[in-house]
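hiii so um. not sure if this is the right channel but i have a protein structure encoded as tokens and i wanna go backwards to a sequence. like what aa goes where. can anyone help
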């Protein structure tokens, strides 16, 4: 064994969804928005002068944090931005989860949580979801070094009420509770109003989903100024210039175009509900997803078989070959035309079984 290996930090990496590049594909595997971002995003990018790119971007991301703060009725001191919500969450793990007790998060959830915990040497415990894949607030009243969970949860799509979230936060005043709201705009209720009452609550959102900017990598956290100050201290100790000028301009424009955001959000929700009805007719079962995806299992056709058949047809969905969920597919909500093509294929394929 090479001597240098003894000092290497080993990590089990997160495995992202497949990114195929086929002309006839229907891509429903990474929860991207099927619609382009606001036209104002393109205008903002075109307004960037090439000579400005020789300059460093604003390390405080003042215009972007100001746009986020303005949208939610906060001060800039209550907003932290980063390179996608993954960057924001990683900074939050590094900043707030520094105790001896285990951090708690669900056993079926965003699979980056245990990756970060392992990378940063954070003790953690995965809390089993209920049989119906819901989070039970009473399970998060044990001794812990912090709590993190998505709402809606991923990949299940199940959402907690604000009252249930408050029950968790109120029961854990000695640690930071992070609510990952990547999909909240598609039907769940945000925990953000609770930040006025609880100084240990951090709400994380992203522009990748409901604002169609997955390619720009923009995420943000909201909470009391003390939490945000701690996050910035860690960020500036790691990398002062995390957000480039194009992302700052695009994010500000997207956040300010409320009309376009509401229009595309409504389209996704309507298509999701139509798809639920059609899947139910075909013998699929699923929870009441509040995300831009559906987590579904068929009554007799195994998920692995369906995944392979769909992939052969260049329809890409997500399959997790893991305990408790190995018979489920996570299907991103695409355009109405894409979802109709998915349903048509499933009708023909399932008739052959």
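sure thing!! here u go:
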């Amino acid at each position: 064994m090479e001597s240098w290996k003894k000092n290497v930090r080993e990590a089990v990496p997160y495995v992202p969804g497949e990114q195929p590049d086929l002309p006839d594909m229907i891509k429903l595997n990474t929860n991207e928005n099927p619609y382009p971002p606001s036209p104002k995003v393109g205008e903002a990018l075109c307004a960037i002068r090439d000579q400005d790119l020789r300059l460093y971007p604003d390390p405080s991301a003042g215009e972007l944090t100001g746009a986020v703060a303005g949208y939610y009725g906060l001060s800039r001191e209550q907003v932290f931005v980063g390179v996608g919500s993954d960057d924001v969450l990683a900074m939050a793990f590094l900043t707030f989860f520094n105790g001896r007790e285990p951090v708690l998060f669900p056993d079926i959830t965003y699979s980056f949580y245990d990756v970060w915990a392992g990378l940063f040497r954070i003790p953690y415990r995965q809390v089993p979801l209920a049989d119906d894949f819901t989070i039970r607030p009473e399970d998060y009243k044990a001794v812990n070094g912090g709590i993190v969970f998505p709402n809606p949860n991923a990949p299940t799509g199940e959402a907690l009420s604000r009252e249930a979230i408050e029950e968790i936060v109120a029961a854990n005043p000695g640690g930071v509770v992070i609510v990952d709201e990547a999909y909240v705009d598609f039907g769940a209720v945000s925990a953000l109003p609770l930040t006025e009452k609880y100084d240990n609550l951090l709400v994380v959102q992203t522009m990748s989903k409901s604002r169609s900017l997955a390619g720009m990598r923009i995420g943000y956290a909201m909470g009391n100024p003390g939490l945000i100050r701690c996050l910035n201290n860690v960020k500036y100790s790691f990398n002062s210039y995390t957000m480039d000028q194009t992302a700052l301009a695009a994010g500000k424009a997207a956040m300010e175009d409320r009309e376009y955001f509401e229009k595309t959000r409504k389209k996704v929700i309507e298509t999701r509900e139509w798809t639920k009805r059609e899947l139910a007719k075909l013998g699929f079962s699923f929870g009441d997803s509040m995300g831009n995806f559906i987590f579904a299992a068929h009554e007799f056709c195994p998920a692995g078989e369906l995944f392979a058949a769909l992939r052969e047809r260049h329809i890409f969905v997500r399959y997790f070959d893991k305990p408790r969920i190995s018979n489920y597919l996570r299907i991103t909500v695409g355009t109405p035309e894409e979802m109709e093509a998915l349903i048509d294929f499933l009708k023909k394929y399932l008739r052959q079984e």
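oh and The longest strand covers residues 201-206.
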